[in-house]
Specification:
single chain, 272 residues, alpha/beta, Rossmann fold, 4-stranded antiparallel β-sheet, binds adenosine-5'-triphosphate
Length: 272
C-alpha cells in the first residue's frame, strides 16, 4: 500500500468508446506537494481531471483500464460527491461561478454538504482573509467581478469544501500576466496552509515556478516528468513551453522551490 496522496497507474480513457484521450497515464501526487500538469491543447489534461473528480460520465467518457488511488483507496469508479466528501475538490476550467448570485452565495454553495455551519463560517473567514477583495464585495453579484477576481472566487469556492487535494484546471486562462503571477502566489499560499495541489496549466512559467514536481502530457501520454525545477531546464520544455521569447511574468522563478535556503514569497494580498 502506498503513502502517496494520489496515485494514477496505467490510466486509459476513451470518449464515446472511440476517442482515446488518455493512453496509460502514470502520475503521483505526494502529500503536501504542488504538482504541475502541463500539455498543449487536446493533450488530455482536462480528461485526467475529469477522471480524478468522477465526472467523466457526464462527458460520455469512460475509464478503459488502469487505476486511481486516493489516500490509499481505489476511487477509479467513484462519483463526484464521494470525492468532495473525502477532500478531493476540483476548480473547473472557465471558473463556472454563478454570475447572478452574490460572492457570498457562491462561496456558500461551495461549502454545502461538506461541513457543518461553524465549519463553513470558519472556511469562509479563511477565504476572505486570503482574498480581501471578496470580503469587500461579498454582497455584490459575482458577474460584476473582474476575470481575475472571478478566478479567485472559483478557487475560494473550492476551498470552502475543505480540500486535502485541490485540482485546479487552467486557472490562468484568459488572464493578464500580472494577474497570473498573483494566481501563482495564491497556489503557494494554499499549499503553505497544508493543501496539496494538482495544477493543470498551459502557462508553464507560472506552473513550474510554484510546483515541486511536473508532468508533461503529450497526446494522451506522459512524455516527461520530474522535479519542476529540473524540467524547466530541459530542452523540450524550454522549447515547447518556455521559449519563443515569451515574456515571463515578474514572479516567475522556476528554481523557487529547488533551494530551501531561498526565501519563499509570501502572498501579496489580492486587492486589485
Ligand atoms: P485543452 O487545454 O484544450 O482543454 P486538454 O489537454 O485538456 O486540452 P482534453 O480536453 O482532455 O485535453 O482532450 C483530450 C482529447 O479528448 C482531445 O482529443 C479531445 O478532442 C477529446 N475530448 C475531450 N472531451 C471530449 C468529449 N466530451 N467527447 C469526445 N472527445 C473529447
Amino acid at each position: 500500500m502506498t503513502s502517496s496522496l494520489l496515485e494514477v497507474r496505467g490510466l486509459a480513457v476513451t470518449y464515446g468508446g472511440v476517442v482515446e484521450a488518455l493512453r496509460g497515464i502514470d502520475l503521483t501526487v505526494e502529500r503536501g506537494s504542488v504538482v504541475a500538469l502541463l500539455g498543449s491543447n487536446g493533450a488530455g489534461k482536462t480528461t485526467l481531471l475529469r477522471a480524478l473528480s468522477g465526472t467523466l460520465r457526464l462527458h460520455r467518457g469512460k475509464v478503459e483500464s488502469g487505476s486511481i488511488h486516493y489516500q490509499g483507496t481505489d476511487i477509479t469508479k467513484r462519483d463526484t460527491a464521494a470525492g468532495v466528501a473525502s477532500g478531493l475538490v476540483q476548480v473547473p476550467e472557465g471558473r463556472r461561478i454563478f454570475t447572478r448570485l452574490t460572492v457570498e452565495e457562491n462561496l456558500r454553495a461551495g461549502g454545502l454538504g461538506a461541513r457543518d455551519k461553524s465549519g463553513r463560517e470558519q472556511a469562509q473567514a479563511r477565504v476572505f482573509e486570503m482574498f480581501p477583495v471578496l470580503a469587500q464585495r461579498r454582497g455584490q453579484r459575482a458577474g460584476l467581478l473582474s476575470g481575475g477576481e472571478q478566478q479567485m472566487l472559483a478557487i475560494g469556492r473550492g476551498l470552502m469544501a475543505g480540500p486535502e487535494l485541490l485540482l485546479l484546471d487552467e486557472p490562468s486562462l484568459g488572464l493578464a500576466p500580472r494577474i497570473i503571477g498573483q494566481i501563482g502566489e495564491v497556489v503557494r499560499e494554499i499549499n503553505n496552509q497544508g493543501v496539496s495541489v494538482l495544477l493543470v496549466e498551459q502557462n508553464a512559467t507560472m506552473a513550474l515556478g510554484v510546483a515541486d514536481t511536473a508532468f508533461v502530457l503529450d497526446v494522451g501520454k506522459v512524455s516527461l516528468s520530474g522535479p519542476a525545477a529540473e524540467l524547466a531546464q530541459t530542452d523540450a520544455v524550454q522549447r515547447l513551453y518556455l521559449g519563443h521569447g515569451a515574456e515571463a511574468p515578474a514572479h516567475a522563478d522556476p528554481l523557487a522551490k529547488a533551494d530551501p535556503a531561498r526565501p519563499r514569497k509570501t502572498l501579496s494580498r489580492w486587492t486589485a
